[in-house]
């Protein structure tokens, strides 16, 4: 496996992140200090996912990092991703416990109303056309179904500070998506909460619950407080700070 991500263009000429040949599991998670971020995601998922699910799909779920959160809840689970490399890793980890499907996020290879619940975590930053993605998620979800979606937030306090001190030209207050070209010239986007919420509503979703997640994502805070203390603080902050939507990740529980 390589240590470099690439980009591919879909039939609609929309760039998608290509993790084929990239060991995301090892490079991004195992070799980096991201235990706090992992636990913050899990806290949110446990709060938002239904306890009992018939058919479930993890959209852009990679190698199944979070599969152990939904496998006990779902009678049937499918992991969807563009990367066949990651899907193979998922099969190696979970075997027949999980189905896998490769494809294009902008044209999901599933029938209408296929799933009772779905999840999409740490993926929106790769999507230029969020309306099209949201419409596809709505299409494959059954009526009354639940979608748990994490969104990369452009309106965080550090981004505000960088804008106010003229260290960044990206305005965190306007509604347009922020294209972070210094991170990835092909596609790395952050979204304003009002912008993304209008997209969900346009697709037909009802916003049921919002959580503020990874509130203390900082190398300095990790060193100062340690992972265990930050996770305990996170448990309180996810609900308490949800109204202001300042965290790097904003989680939505949407209902069709």
Overview of the molecule:
With 256 residues, this protein is of the alpha/beta class. It has nine helices and eleven strands. It has helices spanning 24-30, 35-48, 67-70, 84-94, 130-140, 157-164, 193-203, 219-225, 227-240; strands at 6-9, 15-18, 53-59, 74-81, 99-102, 115-120, 141-152, 178-179, 189-190, 206-213, 249-255. The strands form three sheets. Strands 5-4-3-6-7-11-10 form a seven-stranded mixed β-sheet, with helices on both faces. Helix 5 packs across helix 7. The radius of gyration is 17 Å and the shape is globular. 40% of the residues are buried.
User: Could you say which structural class the secondary elements and strand pairing correspond to?
Assistant: alpha/beta
Give the tally of β-strands.
11
Major sheet: 7 strands, mixed
Mean pLDDT: 89
- SSE arrangement, N to C: EEHHEHEHEEHEHEEHEHHE
Q: Which bin fits the share of residues in helices?
A: 25-40%
**So how many helices?**
9
Low-confidence stretches: 1-9
Topology overview:
Blueprint: E1 6-9, E2 15-18, H1 24-30, H2 35-48, E3 53-59, H3 67-70, E4 74-81, H4 84-94, E5 99-102, E6 115-120, H5 130-140, E7 141-152, H6 157-164, E8 178-179, E9 189-190, H7 193-203, E10 206-213, H8 219-225, H9 227-240, E11 249-255
Parallel strand pairs: 3-4, 3-6, 4-5, 6-7
Antiparallel strand pairs: 1-2, 7-11, 8-9, 10-11
Brief rundown of the structure:
The protein is α/β, with parallel strands linked by helices.
Provide key terms for this protein:
single chain, 256 residues, alpha/beta, 7-stranded mixed beta sheet, two-stranded antiparallel ribbon, 9 helices, 34% helix, disordered N terminus
